Amino acid sequence: MSHPKRNARSDRDNFIRLADDVELGEGVRLFSFVNAYGCRIGSHTQVGAFVEIQRGAVIGERCKIQSHTFICEGVTIEDGCFIGHGVMFINDRHPRAVNPDGSLQARNDWRCEPTHVRRGASIGSGAVILCGVTIGEGALVGAGAVVTRDVPAGKTVAGVPARERAQRILSGAV
Amino acid sequence: MSHPKRNARSDRDNFIRLADDVELGEGVRLFSFVNAYGCRIGSHTQVGAFVEIQRGAVIGERCKIQSHTFICEGVTIEDGCFIGHGVMFINDRHPRAVNPDGSLQARNDWRCEPTHVRRGASIGSGAVILCGVTIGEGALVGAGAVVTRDVPAGKTVAGVPARERAQRILSGAV
Amino acid sequence: MSHPKRNARSDRDNFIRLADDVELGEGVRLFSFVNAYGCRIGSHTQVGAFVEIQRGAVIGERCKIQSHTFICEGVTIEDGCFIGHGVMFINDRHPRAVNPDGSLQARNDWRCEPTHVRRGASIGSGAVILCGVTIGEGALVGAGAVVTRDVPAGKTVAGVPARERAQRILSGAV
Predict the structure, then answer these.
(1) Residue B5: which pLDDT band, with cuts at 50, 70 and 90?
(2) Is C14 strand, coil or helix?
(3) B12/C97 Cβ within 8 A
(4) Chain A partners within 8 Å of C82 (Cβ)
(5) Average pLDDT, whole number, for chain B?
(6) Cβ distance B130 to B90 under 8 Å?
(7) Chain centroid to CA B165
(8) B11, B35 in Cβ contact below 8 A?
(9) ipTM (interface predicted TM)
(10) Rounded to a whole number, what is the distance in angstroms from the first to the last CA of chain C?
(11) Nearest alpha-carbon partner for B128 in B68, B48, B78, B55
(12) How far apart (Å, rounded) are the C-alpha atoms in residues B144 and A126?
């Protein structure tokens, strides 16, 4: 058994594992049970429990990243975004564990597709965000939605797959 | 970087963070990796790994709260309920990280809408429960459902959005 | 309050709780915040953060089990499978917290239905896998899908409930 080789500060009382290469702005609040490495988190952003933020992810200022959410390499979240609980970002369109020769895939064996969440957007809890999409400025993604294509600025989407909805049901998830 | 100011007992061997203001009934079982604060958990209820229970949540007796589930402020779960794995409750219909002036939202900047899960109800894994709904006594929510409105007592719902289904497919998720 | 009685090695720096009865192959990599007991994990498999693997689960060699995923009793995952982030497996078709007499259900009060994931299959992030199904060799389950029946070998499914899709949208989640 082995562990990934990282220089990390482990906070045993708050159950936080923060790699030395994480760049934190001023006044960032990390709640308990956070795992972060190689990422940037802007000033005054809050990160909830049971959140993982991977190498290469960039999160802006004054965001709320809620519990149980996974933010992967390739994801850029601009300032003032709300990312709900249990939101899953994706960066690999064709995920496989192994190569055709049976060897375990390494970082060079797959292509990372970027995802952008523009300023002030909100993503509801339990949403799944496919890779290669842009969620526009101030847009709203309903809870439980599966986003498979771009969301225009200021629009509301919901459902599986996510489609545009009238503003009044913005959080209605459907 | 800062942490939320809470008086909490950290159990470093079981990776549990239990705030001093949690009210626990008799014989409550907390599995590993639990984060709970300001809530009430009734007697003989079990709470699985990677669960967060927020301030103001109330959970009855003899419930099973399974792993990876998030229970927020405003949620009341009565006795004998089964809450599956990865279930996300919601309490804010219009979530935003920041106010119109750009400042980070604080607790008084949004309205908490309550959710009730009545006695003996079961919620399947991966379900998302929108706020302001009541899940009736003995009702069943299928796995992966997104519940956007009340579920009558004894009924089964499934799908996105969740709609009533025949009893025989009660766990069929669709 | 009580904790489950298990002999376990707690790794306080990596936040890992590994019961003594876990069988690990060679070169298994466990990331941080893992809870595993009574399971078998094959050689060179990787297990991400915030993953729980329960008693009786069997995972093959060279698999990738990504963060926030729950693998329960009754689940068998063969070699070379990719299990995305936030994937929920299920083993109880009729989950209830309590018996008709009001007592908390124990292990003998419900029936575990097995699930098989065959060699080389990939399951997208946020998918929910109902119990009693087989996901065939090399099959692909789209992100956010709810799988309610068998997936034939080599096929791609997506949506809620999951249905067969053309190969080209294999990761398109819908």
Answers:
(1) low
(2) coil
(3) no
(4) 95-97
(5) 92
(6) yes
(7) 23
(8) no
(9) 0.93
(10) 44
(11) B68
(12) 10
Angle (nearest 5°) at CA C83 between C82 and C85: 130
The tokens of B36 are what?
Answer: 């709970």
What residue in C sits closest to B174 (Cα-Cα)? Answer: C161
- Window from A83-87, B24-28, C6-10, C103-107 with minimum mean pLDDT: C6-10
The number of residues in chain C equals 174
C15/B13 Cα distance (integer angstroms): 9
Closest of C164, A68, C165 to residue B67, by C-alpha: A68
Q: Please tell me the number of Cα atoms within 13 Å of A165 on its side-chain side.
A: 22
Contacts of A174 in chain B (CB under 8 A): 146, 148, 160-161
> Chain B residues with CB inside 8 Å of C160's CB?
144, 159-160, 173-174
| Of the partner residues B70, B93, B104, the one whose CB lies closest to the CB of residue A171 | B93
Residue C9, pLDDT score? 75
Here the tokens at position A11 are 């906070």
Of A145, C50, C69, the C-alpha closest to B125 is C69
Tokens matching residue A95: 């995920």
CA distance A143 to B113: 15
Tokens matching residue B11: 């159990």
| Residue at B18: amino acid letter | L
Q: Which chains touch B (3 or more CB pairs under 8 A)?
A: A, C
The token pair that represents A139 in the structure block? 């847009």
Residue recorded with tokens 């993953």: C51
Contact A90, A75 (CB under 8 A): no
- The closest alpha carbon to C22, from C34, C6, C39, belongs to C39
Residues of chain A positioned with their CB less than 8 A from the CB of C174: 146, 148, 160-161
Encoded amino acid at B32, one letter: S
**In the sheet that C128-129 helps form, which strands lie side by side, from edge to edge?**
C8-11, C16-19, C34-36, C51-53, C70-71, C88-89, C128-129, C146-147
Nearest CA in chain A to B89: A125
Global pTM value: 0.94
pLDDT tens-digit map of A111-169: 999 999 999 999 999 999 999 999 999 999 999 999 999 999 999 999 999 999 986 54
